[in-house]
Amino acid sequence: MLSLAVILPTLLLVSQSAAVPVVEVSPAGKHTIIERGTCRIAPACNDEGLKLITKYTNFYDRPKQIGRDWTCGYEHKCKNSRCSDMSKKWPISKHKGQDWLKDDLKYSQQCLASYITTECKLNENQYAALLSWTHDQGCDTVRRSRLIKELNQSKPSRNGRDPKDSHDRDGKGRDNDHDDHGHEDDDSKKSEPNRGKGQEDSHRDKSSNDSKDFGKGPQDSSKGSEQQSDSRGNNAHDSDGEKHNDNNGRHGNSNTKRGDDDDKKKIDALCAKYLPTYTSKKKYSRERRNAEVKLCESRSSKIVLPCK
Q1: Which residue among 133, 167, 196, 257 is the one 20 to 30 A from 276 at the CA level?
Q2: Where is the composition biased (Polar residues) (predicted)?
Q3: From residue 162, how far is each of 151, 167, 297, 301 by CA, in Å?
């Protein structure tokens, strides 16, 4: 029997090594180093991505030998010539082949999610386009790709502005009432003539009240003027507070939306620049890259990366 002096260090080593994966085996049987990313469980591919992948992936309803490998379904690599590890009844349906494809995509999903370390937001269509590219080219190619390097070097836009731009902030780090061109906001422009008009009206009302109160006692006239000034002050304070709250909510939502749009433009540009370079002489490959670029540029409100 083994002693505790031998068993305990072994258990400790296994528990420590389980926290950081070193080597994973891909469906094709190749060993690939998987880096630890922010996602413990990578996002799944959406329906649009599955349609793209199945369109440009060969389907075999029974085992077929391609080179040295045996494949079935949507190019799933079998462990033996009969593909007995997948099914015992042939032919299979495309619906069943899609279920196998979803299982095969889990490896590519984990690869892609672990390689992307940027804080830029990726929507589900951008992620699906990159996932199709990863599944076709392989994890090693994607990990060394220029697209992933440039994507990780790009910084997300904060509140719709580039974090490097500081011309819109004063020395104390507060936002100025100026837009990108150095002009004042429309709200501040509109408030100035309103304030001037209010001052003229108050001056006119004061003079008319003075004329009406002529002949009254000093206490009555002072009470009337105080009540009028208090009511005007309260109304002005309430209106200013409502405008301030409305402006804060409106600017906050627009800035967040502008930041998401800026992130999308950056990723769209990277897809259009680098995805077409991973093509062969076959028309099949060129069409797939163009379809991935088109899917990457399509809009979606669902954000999948970075993982929450």
Answers
A1: 257
A2: 219-234
A3: 15, 11, 21, 21
